[in-house]
Specification:
By secondary structure, the protein is an alpha+beta fold. Helix content is 27%, strand content 44%. The protein has one domain: Alpha-Beta Complex (Nucleoside Triphosphate Pyrophosphohydrolase). Strands 1, 2, 3, 4, 5, 6 and 7 form a seven-stranded mixed beta sheet that branches.
Amino acid sequence: MIPTPAVGVVCLKDDAVLLIRRGTPPREGEWSLPGGRIEPGERLADAALRELQEETGIEARLIGLIDVVDGLFPDAGRHYVLIDYAAVWTAGEPRAGDDAAEAVFLPVEEALRRVDWSETRRIIRAACDMARAVA
């Protein structure tokens, strides 16, 4: 498996976080963060905002880099290097687009219950901490 660079975005609006239900493998049907592959020549932050807009129709302001996570999906033959950002909502209403089956803002605790992958839960918590620190 050749690693694929990708971005993820924890978009916060008041006390809610934006989640998507994945419409394609890997983890099809599961709740996750908006994000996707970085296009050749694209800056990381630009990729994060583009993926957010394409998958959810939401616009946001990035507030910081959270972490870099290995997304290993051997059953799907994929290895993503996920570069996760925290963002604050600025405009738009969630709508599923691109490869997302659903997009919705959920209270943080509800979002944490819906997400299966422990790394995603950790990233959401870290984004909430970051948002409190910059507020």
